[in-house]
Each structure stands twice: as structure tokens, then as C-alpha cells.
Design brief:
Number of helices: 13
Strand order of the largest sheet: 8-10-11-12-13-14
Helix content: 25-40%
Number of strands: 23
């Protein structure tokens, strides 16, 4: 099956019986979606809404809200979350805040909807990036239609199984893979977003697709392997690079290794890797043009990200069959006049036997100092208990002397049971800095 146009989705009455979503084990048809979206569109027009912030948590209600608002002539704003501080920061940028309750109260109406102009239907995403500062990223429905065509061209052999998700739909990755692609290709999606693996695996149907992230796939320890007849057809992971160890653990439980995705809010999907080996390179998606600039940063031209070249902060190294991702260019800092790669310091820490994972941040001050947040390995936990925090930090710093200059070694340490991360597994500088506030 090829990908259809989302802008025409609610206008084809011959497909009214087609299931588009599942809620509580019951299927929801395209006809019901069209009727509920038509009801909301009528309310949007009668109310004079121009810009609406959509915060529905239920994915089906979200789609009703999205298509109803678009057919009602509204720009749709998608806050990163529903926290009061997030919505307060957006005050003045929308006419109405639409949640699950308001969408349900709009009722149904006989759908007499005209096709949308996908290039004129605006969705505005908000991303905090690595610093936590919100950034407004406008997209069009047509961009997601073109991306759905690309995803379908790559993974059309996976069948039409139900799409399950552990990631929110208000971010570009969740929107593309759980909402836009399934709607365009006839794959029903689960209305619920699963916060735990136990609930998802209990409800999982054969040949399903799972849309997940390293933040979730890294927490599968202790789960029992699925029977062969209940394994998913595909598991996606995005938000941050998945570790090879997490890919193998997912394979033990789910029966296959996840497909790792790299992309951004601005660009959509850039590349993928199937984890055939530990050093598997990334392969760009069909239709994209990639190049590496003089500083090693990735630049790309994408049919679903606009007509202009996009310069990213991702450092890459071209290799046969694709490229290797080397981290972010914006993670280069100056300490004592020397350029220091925070990614490089993290890699140096992660190879030490006492460290399971590390995150490094530049602490405010003049001169600047590095702070390291450490997840100790089992051996590291034993040494930490024996030495105490101060002496254990001295041990780690001394162990870096063979590979790093003294200015590059962290001077402040925090030892944690889990590294702080956002919903999709991305680390934010603001979250790391909070761990060191007591020291300033």
C-alpha cells in the first residue's frame, strides 16, 4: 500500500469502515473520526478560532483535534507538554487551549468536508533542545505527507499491524511515526501511550509496530521474552542514539533489534540503522541529499523539511555505506584557552571500568569548570561505597590523566542511579546543571 494524502483523509466516504485507532480493545472507524472532526471544525469556525494549542493526551482525541482544527481553518500549536510553566510561556500565542474534554464535548456532525491544502495547514512544534530554552518550529501538513511517503517506501513490507507507542505524539518523532504515517497508510494506532512495558506487551497484537525511545528501551531488564507468534514486525527508536547493549536486550525480549532513527524537529527523519553490528553506520533516508561541511557538520536538503539547505550541529564522518555520528558541534567548550569536547570527555569516562554512563556539562563561572554526572557500574558502586564520593571522584579524575589534559578533566562530580533525561531520552543541559546548583 502506498501512502495517501492526509489532507484528503476525511473526504473519502468509501473508506468509512476502515479502522484508524484502537481504544480499550475496540476499533474506531474512519467514519467516526470524520464525524467527530467535522463537529470540532464547525465549533472552530463558529468560535472564530485562528490559533489553537492542542494538548490532548489520548492519541485518537489528538487526531480528532488536529484534523478538526485544520478543517476549521486554524493553525495548530503543539506544546512540548501540559505543564503550567510550559503553557504560561506560550501565553498570548493561541486563542484557545484544547484538551481531551473539550474535544469530546464538540460532538459529531455529518462530515461534508472539503480537501485541505496541505501546504497551507500549519503545525507549530516547540522544542527545548539541549539547553531547555523553548524554540518555535513551524511545519506544514504537506511536509508530513511527504515524509509518510518516504517511510512507507522503506518499510512497506512490515504489513498493516497496529502501531503501539511509548513516546508522546506532540513531538515530531511521535507525530510522524505514530500518527501521520499510520493514518496515511491504513495502519490503526493505539489511542493510549504506554508508560510501562508491562502494559504495552500485555496488549500487543501480532505483527505490530512499536514506536519507542532509548529512555524506554534502556529499561527492559527483567521482562520475559515474547512468544514467537506475538513478536512485533518493527521496533523504532529515536530521540538519542540507542546503545548496542540496549539493542541486544530488546532483541532478547521482543525478538528483533530496534531500527534506530536520527533526526530533529526541524528536519524530520534524517537517517536510520538496523543494528547488524556494534559499529553499524547510519544510512540516509531516500530522497535526502547530505553533505559534510568544512567543520564536519551535517548539512541536508530534505523534501519534507522545506526547499532550503539545513545546517545542523551534528558532527559526522562519511564511511562506506553511510556515515558515523560523532556528536554535536555545539558541545565544544573552551577551558583555560583550550577547546574541549564534552562528547570526548564523556567517551573517556564511559570506558573506565567503574562507569556505566556519564554526562558532562560546563558549569557557570570564570574560569569555567566541568561537572560530570556519573552512573556507576556495579564495580563502581562497590568502589564508591568503599572510598566515598570525594575520593571516588579523585580516582576517576586520576584515571583520565592518560587520555585527557588536566583542563579537560571534570572537577565536580555527581553520582546518580539514573542519568536525567527528557521524554525521548535526550539529555538537557538545564537538567544536568540543576544537580550542581547546591555547589554554587
Amino acid at each position: 500500500m502506498t501512502a495517501g494524502a492526509l489532507s484528503h483523509l476525511l473526504c473519502d466516504r468509501q473508506q468509512d469502515a476502515r479502522p484508524v485507532a484502537c481504544r480499550g480493545g475496540a476499533a474506531i472507524s474512519l467514519g467516526q473520526l470524520a464525524a467527530e472532526a467535522a463537529g470540532l471544525a464547525a465549533r472552530a469556525r463558529s468560535s472564530g478560532w485562528q490559533r489553537a494549542a492542542l494538548t490532548a493526551q489520548d492519541s485518537y482525541s489528538f487526531v480528532v483535534g488536529l484534523l478538526g482544527l485544520m478543517h476549521g481553518g486554524c493553525e495548530v500549536l503543539l506544546p512540548a507538554n501540559r505543564q503550567p510553566g510550559t503553557l504560561e510561556a506560550m501565553r498570548g500565542s493561541f486563542d484557545v487551549l484544547l484538551d481531551d474534554r473539550m474535544i469530546g464535548e464538540a460532538g459529531r456532525q455529518e462530515p461534508r468536508l472539503e480537501p485541505l491544502d496541505g501546504s497551507a495547514c500549519l503545525l507549530t512544534f516547540f522544542t527545548s533542545g539541549s539547553t531547555g530554552a523553548p524554540k518555535r518550529v513551524p511545519k506544514t501538513l504537506a511536509m508530513f505527507e511527504r515524509e509518510a511517503e518516504t517511510l512507507q517506501a522503506v518499510w512497506k513490507k512490515d504489513g498493516q499491524g497496529t502501531v503501539f507507542s511509548t513516546v508522546p505524539h506532540q513531538h515530531v518523532y511521535g507525530f510522524s511515526y505514530k500518527i501521520a504515517w499510520p493514518l496515511a497508510t491504513g495502519r490503526p494506532f493505539q489511542a493510549a501511550t504506554n508508560e510501562t512495558w508491562e502494559g504495552l506487551l500485555r496488549d500487543l497484537t501480532p505483527a505490530a509496530t512499536i514506536v519507542s525511545s532509548p529512555a524506554h528501551l534502556g529499561r527492559m531488564g527483567g521482562l520475559q521474552p515474547l512468544p514467537a507468534d506475538r513478536r512485533p514486525a518493527r521496533v523504532f527508536s529515536a530521540g538519542a542514539p540507542l546503545t548496542y547493549e540496549a539493542a541486544l536486550e530488546a532483541e532478547r525480549i521482543l525478538g528483533l533489534r530496534p531500527t534506530d532513527i536520527i533526526g530533529s524537529t526541524e528536519t524530520g527523519t534524517i537517517a536510520m540503522r538496523e543494528w547488524n553490528g556494534e559499529n553499524q553506520p547510519w544510512q540516509s533516508m531516500p530522497g535526502l541529499t547530505l553533505r559534510c561541511d568544512e567543520e564536519g557538520r551535517l548539512n541536508l536538503l530534505s523534501p519534507y523539511a522545506g526547499p532550503e539547505w539545513i545546517a545542523t550541529a551534528d558532527l559526522i564522518a562519511p564511511v562506506p555505506g553511510g556515515f558515523r555520528w560523532l556528536g554535536r558541534a555545539d558541545r565544544i567548550v573552551k577551558i583555560e584557552g583550550r577547546r574541549v569536547s564534552l562528547n570526548g570527555v564523556e567517551r573517556a569516562l564511559s570506558v573506565l571500568p567503574w562507569v556505566a554512563a556519564a554526562a558532562v556539562v560546563l558549569l557557570p563561572g570564570n574560569p569555567g569548570r566541568l561537572g560530570a554526572v556519573i552512573l556507576p557500574s556495579e564495580t563502581g558502586k562497590e568502589r564508591l561505597a568503599a572510598l566515598g564520593k570525594f575520593r571516588f571522584g579523585r580516582l576517576l579524575r586520576a584515571s583520565l590523566a592518560e587520555t585527557l589534559e588536566p583542563a579537560s578533566a571534570p572537577r565536580h562530580w555527581r553520582f546518580v542511579e539514573a542519568l536525567p533525561s527528557a521524554e525521548l531520552g535526550k539529555r538537557r543541559e538545564s537538567d544536568l546543571l540543576k544537580l550542581f546548583e547546591a555547589a554554587r
